[in-house]
Amino acid sequence: MSNSNHNAGADILLDIRGLKTYFHLDEGTVRAVDGVDFTVPRGTTIGIVGESGCGKSVTAFSILQLVEKPGRIEEGSIVLNTGGQNRVDIAALDHDSEELRQIRGKDIGMIFQEPMTSLSMMYTVGFQMTEAIRLHMDVEKDEARDRAIEMLQAVGIPRPEQRFDAYPFELSGGMRQRVMIAMALSCDPMLLIADEPTTALDVTTQAQILELMQQLQEEFGMAIMLITHDLGVVAEMCSEVVVMYLGEVVEQADVDTIFHNPQHPYTQALLESIPRLGHSHEGRLNPILGSVPDPYHRPSGCPFHPRCTQIITGRCETVHPEISRLDPRHTVRCLLHEDPHG
Amino acid sequence: MIQYILHRVLLMIPTVFGISILCFGIIQLPPGDFLTFYVAELSAQGESVPEAQIAQLERQYGLGRPWYVQYFLWMKNIITKGDFGRSFTWNKPVSDLIWDRIAFTMLITLLTVVFVWIVALFIGKYAATHQYSLGDYIATFFGFIGLAVPNFLLALLLLYYSLQLFGLSPAGLFSPEYQDAPWSVGKWIDLLAHLWIPIVILGTAGTAGAIRILRANLLDELHKPYVITARAKGVPERTLIWRYPVRVALNPFISTVGWTLPDLVSGSIIVSVVLNLPTTGPLLLGALLQQDMFLAGSFILLVSVLTVIGTLISDVLLAWLDPRIRFS
Amino acid sequence: MTATPHAATPSALPPVETPESQEDMRLLVAGQWQLMWWRFRKHKVAMVATAVSLLIYFVAVFAEFLAPLPRDHYAADYTFAPPQRIKLILEDEFGNREFHPHVLGYTVEIEAVALRRVFKPDPEQVIELGFFVDGLEEYRVLGIFPSRKHLFGPKDPTQPFYLFGADKLGQDLYSRLIFGTRISMTIGLVGVALSLIFGILLGGVSGLFGGTVDNIIQRTIEFFRAVPSIPLWMGLSAALPEDWDAIKRYFAITVILSILGWTGLARVVRGRFLSLREEDFVMSARLDGVAELGIILRYMLPSFLSHIIASVTLSIPGMILAETSLSFLGLGLRPPVVSWGVLLKDAQRVQVLATAPWLLIAAVPVIVSVLALNYVGDGLRDAADPYSR
After folding, report:
1. Per-residue pLDDT tens digits for B209-225
2. What is the pTM of this model?
């Protein structure tokens, strides 16, 4: 998986530019996503990583306009290329428009962190699955049922005909996440957004779910956007990685570059803070200094400067770095790598 | 499910037993018994009661014997013969007097429950989905007013204003021409035309409470992950709200009917007194004021027991609607 | 939805202490009551409601001073006299306008057809009003200090002054409303105090012992909640002996109201008890070897006292409404005791209402006090958990 194509100008499925999603609270405005740019190539797995509160989930929610009040997409475009010249800017659609609803669940499927609460306990698995199928595919009830059972089978649920009539509370967490995946993929989406899909599951189930997602990608050929704070999962699953810090993308590159040649001090610190086989730091881990700043008090200049070990005193506190392109698919936002050509 | 219903019915038995003891206590509390009153009443009118009849009544109700014997006889007569004792003010068996009244009380209460439900459902849903909007504030404010104004006051105000504006009194359940007429289509329509007034008056407090409950529950549910899942599937917003969060918020709502029912029954009694409806209220009040205790006690017994049954039905309904309870 | 728990994954970063701002420091050292007060203060409506409630209780305490007339003063000449309008400016015969608060007396005509007395304001009879005027009778402030002063009233106490009109005995409704405040507001307090004793005792026992005791008490509570309250109250108060005096009756009614009132409080107490028992700080106190009673008094009581206070405040309005309803039906308090419900009883009949609609004014204090106490209780409930946000 880790060696799929990443040519420049590869067929881009989703192009996010200048995305800003703010939360207007009584205490002030939280700029959860503050100018995010990245692209998702067709058919690949892209990982979005960062600490809690870095805006990775809000980015994912913004893509389907699922951010709820008091959150709001302020600026930016989210262009979905559904093939050929068919481009839609999702950010510009009305939040309850027919167009947006046709993208939700059909072109882009989504699964969430909490399989225990992501399904309604009031309806059967079958009802919730066929609801999505019948919304997006022109099929009769029976066909929808067949399709749902087929999908349940595809995600490895034993005895899918019986599970179809089961209520979610009768299933285990891992099974529910499988149902969620089956539901998200039931209309053949081009992109599957997975928001920390394994965080709430136990370790063995985590591995099974990840493996299932890889296997389904081979089968269905959709792109996957995997939001996680687990670098191990990223190394295993993704071909490209987007590293976020305080609502900004600080580095984007293919997975090998991120792990072997990270350029942003934050990415480097992140990697040093996790144990890795063969990379012993005399048996010690280096935690990142400090903690994520309070969302109402963003540091000036480069948001990472208070915690950075390679700070250029006098500049990093005041200058907000622009994105520098180190090579066609490796960008970094750091004054150490300032692009001399602007 | 069957087990659950059986369990609930079994739990109801001690409650009903407790109620019957309580009502019997109320009957026994005032000094003297109904027979003394009865005899005194008749003597005052210059009539005498034949010794034989007194003896017969004494035997029938176990008067003069220990209270538990009297209680046992009272219960036995009710269960086996439907005989609730005698009303000395009306000089009739209690059972001749109460059933019509109880039926009207239950009719009004039931319709009020339906009214409360429908109104609260729509307003509560609106208030929750438009939190902090003008409409929400208005709903909240009216909610508080509805809770603070006792419904007999509403009834009084209504009486006063209809008297002022239309010169007529909206009291009663029938227009004079239908008052003693046999049941017909016309009488039913006339009944419905009068019925909405007590229903609205009675329902105000309940609706206010129910709106608050539904709004709070719905606000809790609106941002749950399963709602976001449904939205991410592309379900239209309107369908989504009714189908997912409202559906869940309904559960605690249904279970509150259980305890709004006693309140509604209570309210209906006092509103009926003001509006002079042919329900339990005025007759119960009259009986209590004249210490016609068999009549009063029987009313309280029946109203309470029917309320308990109503609560049971609403609980069973809740269980049936919630798959989590239905399947456990 | 952005919050991701620091799971035991490799990238979970250890949090490092950041310097607290002064605001945070203040929050850290503040006690529970301090936090509650800060939180309650933010709730503007609750603050206003608190002021209103305190004002109403103030009226209850100083009723004799605030009411222009003694409680039982009546004047057959003024049966159902309508309310008078207070006029501030008096014009003398020379056209000079001067500040002189006054009301006009009545002329009475007998309506020929209905044989009803009709009161009309009489411009000839100027009844001057003043502050701190002497009243008809001497009374005692707080039952101790004798006084004749009233906050305001007619300068000549024998002249008619009916701000809110008169009832069927020619009694001043305004004065009676003020006296009614005392009974109506205290019956709520006394009733709730009784309920609280029952509630804490039974709820505490239920939560503390659990098992069979808990089960029995829970069933009892369910039983009382299943019974419609008004018929039960009606039955019990109708059974009160006729010859009981006012005081006995007053206490009997409070007892009857708290027969049902304790259940709600008992539920709150029990629920709190059960949830607190599982709290870490209770467990740590237990591990430290603090005796069970010590734990309850020293650790548990302070942390649910706030909830109890909120619940108590929220149950007073119910008591007020219950008393009003019962007295309105004629089964609760009876004249000569004056409560808002007793006053409203006069308005029960449509015919009376048609002649004297001002009798309905007794509803206003009921609504205001119930609303105010509800808002106070709501604010307290929100503030009761200062650590939640």
Report:
1. 788 888 888 888 888 88
2. 0.76
